[in-house]
Protein 1
Amino acid sequence: MKMTLRWYGPGYDSVSLSQIRQIPGVHGVITTLYGTNPGEAWDLEEIRALKKTVEDAGLFIDGIESVNVSDAIKTAGPDRDQHIENYIKTLENLGKEGIRVVCYNFMPVFDWTRSELARVRPDGATVLAYNQDVIDKLDPDHMKESIESMSNGFVMPGWEPERLDSLKDLFNLYKDIDSDILFDNLVYFLKAIEPVCEKYDIRMAIHPDDPAWPIFNLPRIITGLDSYKRLFEAVNKPFNGITLCTGSLGTNPKNDLPGIIRFAGDRIAFAHVRNLKYNSDRDFEEAAHLSSDGSMDMYAIMKALYDVKFDGHIRPDHGRMIWGEEAMPGYGLYDRALGTQYLQGLLEAIEKNER
Ligand SMILES: [Mn+2]
């Protein structure tokens, strides 16, 4: 397992590569090419320049999160095949630069959804939180404003303003898309990119839906064990992998995370490991990575990853905002750095104990 940190690139991230370089055990970053829109092909020279920036700082690009899939691909719109061709070009360019893991998601309209970006916890830390009653009362058309007003002036990943400016049109695109159609569109996409992934040995790592149930009447297809059974059966090839994200799958307390890890096994191409605290079945908040701060057994999660011989890249996920840091909610330096140390500590203990 190689420890990484998500990094949004110069001009977008409050955290610098030199800071990341000083976190013990961190091998590289998970990043993306900002300024590109879903559906466009990424330029080889721009990928090279990003790679050089990261490598000059003594780190590696250990994976891309994300190459976003366009709404035309998700809805089988008129531009679908052109966008897939562009996606293939992007994968080819990433493959030429030795980048082998690509995270993506197939969520309609909204990426991850939270009702609060700065809920205050008893120790004064602020965290992202979700309350179903608040979401149920919310007009999805105003989701953009509500997220923007809470995001400290940062552009939140998945909530790019250009896209969300036309929310009504977006909802319209999905009005006839149920979960079976969405799943078929995912399979169509995967089959189309299979040859380029196999040529360059790229593993596609689909991120689970967050939260792991339908919201705003939009379908969700990657929510737990049954989704993975269906996904692996539909495209039974090693390139068709997953991002094991405990924070997203774990939004549903019925998801047995170690069980899912053991089922997915070598299809886990990338891992996001973090903790959540459930306050009720309608309300949860993000917690420190430490097991006792939340509701998850982080030891059991790391042990399961060890047992399935997961040897890919792992990163802590959303951190709490602590020590007065000002950053994109969930993506400050301090708490995620603490997370890397805790997860590596668990792993060292597991490895030495097993030897
Ligand atoms: Mn995640």
Note: Residues 207, 245, 247-248, 272, 317 surround manganese (II) ion (CB under 6 Å).
Protein 2
Amino acid sequence: MTALRSASSLPIAADQGATVIRLHDHPLSGNGHKVRMLLSMLGLPHEHVFRDVPSGRPQQEPEFAALNPLLQIPILEDGQTVIWDSQAILVYLARRYGPDWFPLEPEPAARVMQWLSFATNEINNSLQQARLYYLLGEHHDIDLMTRRGLRVLTILDRELAERPWLAADRATIADLACYPYVGLSRQGKLPLDDFRRTVAWMERIEALPGYIPMPGLLGTPAIP
Ligand SMILES: N[C@@H](CCC(=O)N[C@@H](CS)C(=O)NCC(=O)O)C(=O)O
């Protein structure tokens, strides 16, 4: 394996019989950050496996393709269980280690799914692409991504006028799934100045026990 392992978290003692949780990730990945936040908020010891996906190198490695046929991070290994896609990983971790993060009553469960879908489709196909256009020079229709991004932020801000959290009366994985690319949106030249309810919601997330920041979020330098 060419990936580097960092010991940023406590190792799980083999003699306790616990499985090792391993997150394949890149520190500038917003999708990865959703998972990093939940692992931290749940207090779960884990290892990071650095995957330099912008370089294209991990995508050449058969071992990486065996973990995720889409050749993307984040990927979570929990013992023999391998899950890819940040939303799916949030669901897995919540159901296995922190059920409060994913309420199963019909309405909040449906609302969580609604916002996980919003994160996958609407947010990733606007704010994430605009960020990649400016940060990494990726080819995207930036006018379209900007228009879509403004629509996403407008919808979020309107929804957050009605309630403090997206899916329930407390923070859930819906909030964590939507948070990173909204918080990183100024890197895609979509500042949050006109979206004060969204900024207040971000501050509520940032006050949760175990919250961790990442470079580029508000309160950190815009370009790391
Ligand atoms: N739907 C996936 C998207 C994952 C994704 O876009 N990952 C990016 C990094 S944030 C990646 O690995 N890109 C490299 C590639 O597609 O080759 C998720 O939510 O995890």
Note: The helical segments are 30-41, 62-67, 86-97, 106-136, 142-159, 173-183, 196-206.
